[in-house]
């Protein structure tokens, strides 16, 4: 039985979700910049994700409207570019930048962060060579996807394992770590051909591994190795990554 909108949410819903014909919407996440809802698109059995950027009362209304419109439009443009180039990202279904919402394909699966932690904490994890091989296969898939992303001239801006999903095809059984790696949450993404920007993307992911997956951190090199194979300009990016790491270590030393 569907739960009425007003019982599901403590926030006002975007106008598109208040129409009498709209499907019930479930609030999935609430962040500083926006909210993510799960609802449907066109048909009741076609789930979708609706990202909504509500107005910010602390900003001037005209500035707020311009920023919201620009950010929604930029995210949609980046996603559409990645989709055209074959990068696994959610498809864009609809958008109303003026009203601050973006409707996308719902990616069914689990975050990579959750899958790795479940694997390492479950009976499926095997110490030694077998564990290294299964995790290594996932690292290589991540490396290929990030390489494909950077090849399109897009940097993610918040590249962590929380912003990667493992999508399994119907009937596919490949254990906890199986499935296609799909990149999500492009709210901070931008179009860039800069080696520096690409290197920062990799550095953010590397730091995320160090803090979130310490047991898997030693395998991070496999991501960079596969990245190097899948992206022709990776050599200069990986060289720049060393500079970014050095700056990061200096900042850590200085506090």
UniProtKB/TrEMBL annotation:
<comment type="subunit">
    <text>Component of the EKC/KEOPS complex composed of at least BUD32, CGI121, GON7, KAE1 and PCC1; the whole complex dimerizes.</text>
</comment>
<keyword id="KW-0819">tRNA processing</keyword>
<keyword id="KW-0547">Nucleotide-binding</keyword>
<dbReference type="GO" id="GO:0005829">
    <property type="term" value="C:cytosol"/>
</dbReference>
<keyword id="KW-0723">Serine/threonine-protein kinase</keyword>
<keyword id="KW-0804">Transcription</keyword>
<keyword id="KW-0010">Activator</keyword>
<keyword id="KW-0963">Cytoplasm</keyword>
<dbReference type="GO" id="GO:0000408">
    <property type="term" value="C:EKC/KEOPS complex"/>
</dbReference>
<protein>
    <recommendedName>
        <fullName>EKC/KEOPS complex subunit BUD32</fullName>
        <ecNumber>2.7.11.1</ecNumber>
    </recommendedName>
</protein>
<keyword id="KW-0158">Chromosome</keyword>
<dbReference type="GO" id="GO:0016787">
    <property type="term" value="F:hydrolase activity"/>
</dbReference>
<keyword id="KW-0418">Kinase</keyword>
<keyword id="KW-0805">Transcription regulation</keyword>
<dbReference type="GO" id="GO:0004674">
    <property type="term" value="F:protein serine/threonine kinase activity"/>
</dbReference>
<dbReference type="InterPro" id="IPR008266">
    <property type="entry name" value="Tyr_kinase_AS"/>
</dbReference>
<dbReference type="GO" id="GO:0000781">
    <property type="term" value="C:chromosome, telomeric region"/>
</dbReference>
<keyword id="KW-0597">Phosphoprotein</keyword>
<dbReference type="GO" id="GO:0008033">
    <property type="term" value="P:tRNA processing"/>
</dbReference>
<dbReference type="GO" id="GO:0005634">
    <property type="term" value="C:nucleus"/>
</dbReference>
<comment type="function">
    <text>Component of the EKC/KEOPS complex that is required for the formation of a threonylcarbamoyl group on adenosine at position 37 (t(6)A37) in tRNAs that read codons beginning with adenine. The complex is probably involved in the transfer of the threonylcarbamoyl moiety of threonylcarbamoyl-AMP (TC-AMP) to the N6 group of A37. BUD32 has ATPase activity in the context of the EKC/KEOPS complex and likely plays a supporting role to the catalytic subunit KAE1. The EKC/KEOPS complex also promotes both telomere uncapping and telomere elongation.</text>
</comment>
<dbReference type="InterPro" id="IPR022495">
    <property type="entry name" value="Bud32"/>
</dbReference>
<dbReference type="GO" id="GO:0070525">
    <property type="term" value="P:tRNA threonylcarbamoyladenosine metabolic process"/>
</dbReference>
<keyword id="KW-0779">Telomere</keyword>
<dbReference type="GO" id="GO:0005524">
    <property type="term" value="F:ATP binding"/>
</dbReference>
<keyword id="KW-0808">Transferase</keyword>
<keyword id="KW-0378">Hydrolase</keyword>
<dbReference type="Pfam" id="PF06293">
    <property type="entry name" value="Kdo"/>
</dbReference>
<dbReference type="InterPro" id="IPR011009">
    <property type="entry name" value="Kinase-like_dom_sf"/>
</dbReference>
<keyword id="KW-0539">Nucleus</keyword>
<comment type="similarity">
    <text>Belongs to the protein kinase superfamily. BUD32 family.</text>
</comment>
<feature type="domain" description="Protein kinase">
    <location>
        <begin position="22"/>
        <end position="255"/>
    </location>
</feature>
<keyword id="KW-0067">ATP-binding</keyword>
<dbReference type="InterPro" id="IPR000719">
    <property type="entry name" value="Prot_kinase_dom"/>
</dbReference>
């Amino acid at each position: 039985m569907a739960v009425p909108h007003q019982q599901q949410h403590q926030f006002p819903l975007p106008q598109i979700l208040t129409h009498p014909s709209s499907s019930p919407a479930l609030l999935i996440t609430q962040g500083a910049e926006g909210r993510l809802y799960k609802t449907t698109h066109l048909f009741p059995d076609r789930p979708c994700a609706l990202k909504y950027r509500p107005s910010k009362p602390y900003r001037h209304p005209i500035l707020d409207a311009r920023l919201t419109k620009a950010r929604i439009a930029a995210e949609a443009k980046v996603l559409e570019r990645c989709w055209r180039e074959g990068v696994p990202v959610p498809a864009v279904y609809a958008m109303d930048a003026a009203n601050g919402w973006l409707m996308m394909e719902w990616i069914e699966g689990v975050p990579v962060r959750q899958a790795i932690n479940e694997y390492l904490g479950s009976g499926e994890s095997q110490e030694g060579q077998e564990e290294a091989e299964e995790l290594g296969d996932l690292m290589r898939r991540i490396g290929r996807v990030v390489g494909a992303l950077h090849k399109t001239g897009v940097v993610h801006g918040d590249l962590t394992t929380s912003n990667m999903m493992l999508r399994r095809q119907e009937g596919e059984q490949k254990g906890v770590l199986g499935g296609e790696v799909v990149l999500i949450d492009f709210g901070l993404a931008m179009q860039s051909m800069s080696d520096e920007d690409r290197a920062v993307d990799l550095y953010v992911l590397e730091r995320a591994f160090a803090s979130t997956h310490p047991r898997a951190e030693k395998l991070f090199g496999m991501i960079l190795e596969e990245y190097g194979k899948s992206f022709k300009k990776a050599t200069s990016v990986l060289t720049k990554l060393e500079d970014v790491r050095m700056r990061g270590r200096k900042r850590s030393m200085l506090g």
